[in-house]
Amino acid sequence: MAEQFKEPVVDRVYTLNLGPQHPSTHGVLRVLLDLDGEFIVKADPVIGYGHRGHEKMGENRTYKQFLPNASRMDYLSGLLYNHGFVLAVEKLAGIEVPERARYIRTVCAELNRISSHLLWFGTYVMDLGGFTPFLYAFDDRENILDILDRVSGSRLTYSYCRFGGVCNDVDAQFVDMTRAFVKRLRSRFPDYDNLVTKNVIFIHRTRGVGVITAEQAREFGVTGPNLRACGIPYDMRRIEPYEIYDRFDFEVPIGSNGDALDRYHVRLQEMEQSCRIIEQALDKMPGGPFWNEAAAFKVRPPKGEIYFGFESARGQTGYYLVSDGSQCPYRCHIRVPSYGNLHVLTEVLRGTMVADAISILGSIDVVIPEIDR
Amino acid sequence: MATRDVMAEKLRSVLGDNAVCVDDKYGAGVFVAATAPAARLLEVLGLFKETGFYLETMTALDFQDTQEIVYHLNCYEPLSRMSVRVLVEHGAAAPTASGVFTAANWLEREVREFHGIQFDGHPDPRNLLLPEDADYHPLKKDFGKVHAYRTREEIYG
Hints:
Largest sheet of chain B: 5 strands, mixed
Helix content of chain B: 25-40%
Strand content of chain B: 15-25%
Distance between the termini of chain A: 53 Å
Radius of gyration of chain A: 22 Å
Structural class of chain B: alpha/beta
Distance between the termini of chain B: 34 Å
Order of helices and strands of chain A: EEEHHHHHEEHHHHHHHEEEHHHH
Oligomer: heterodimer
CATH architecture of chain A: Orthogonal Bundle
């Protein structure tokens, strides 16, 4: 018996099909891995299983009719996409927005960013074999969903922002709930650190794993926390301040090595920065109208085009809208951050082991339906 | 001198003053809008690469009389997004930028399947999002329901 194991059983590159049903592929990603033993020679992501034709839909319906589509591209940060689309159209059509609405939107957008990061935190650690932190993260995330449910009526795919404002005003209870949530989340960070950040198994699975260099990031158009983990403080909220982000005092956390551990740290610190923005926005929130409602029902931008970039939870999202002066956009293109973030994996995965591939895939935080559109 | 001003200067010297439009007010979201002939596209994108820009996104527009590819490029300093536009006749091919920016590899695959524009010398011309046997181009204006099919003049004239 022993004789036959002296020679390698497989002495050629073979192909392993990871996904689309694998629990670590978050959505419907399939990666064709060419393997030499346990090492990856070539990784070829196969995407498009969730293609719904959002860009085509954008072109054959009015701006207002497209609004519910926006939050369904990246369903984990739906309000951010909704917010960005509204901002793009407002800039294109020159719609005035009341001050109060701008503050309400900012608070809700940052809440959604935290909920997206919390979900990533939970599922990433679960990919690596830790189940308990997942329950902690979902417990905290539930508070955000309750808060946003109260004002917007939905828990995942929000159409809360409307052209010229938001569709519901917030009340004192919303403010109280949000403040209580921020306080509670801050008290949970030490728990997260004790459970995960200081966990030696976690550190071994992430430190030095999946390094993205700054040069690779530029080559592939990587943005968001994945880019900031390489040490580049590139955040659209700072670089091209939109809405009212230039009025708040917050930092842009960066890493140094660009490995999975740095990406983890950047996202955890970003949640704290979002909490700071929320607190400042609640303190400064003025009274007055919350919706310039007259503007919302006759959106007909003049001829022209706009590229509007904003920071969603995964990086820079951009809406490229071309108007022919009618009530439907002539072209509606959406730049999604996960596109570059996934593309870079074809290079990063080369030479790593299959077990590390799971860790790297999780640390990149891709949402595949966002790429498929 | 900021990177974006260096780049605007380079574009002017390569493409001429008429093809480069600088907008300090950032009205359409871009600082510089440039128009390049297809033959000089790679040279222009190469300049962006060496100046420190990254390829943000690219897409195509379908008009009755022509098709147009739009590249958006950006660098890591404030307000520096630039766009480069290239006109491509219906049925004609464009040069591939995947040798300049690797990001263009997937973006061109997407433009190819959705708009039917071929890219000369593309290393991997498979479908990206559509099924591998799809022989239709969904974002062309003669596919499915559209509200208008216009000439380029009607929109930019």
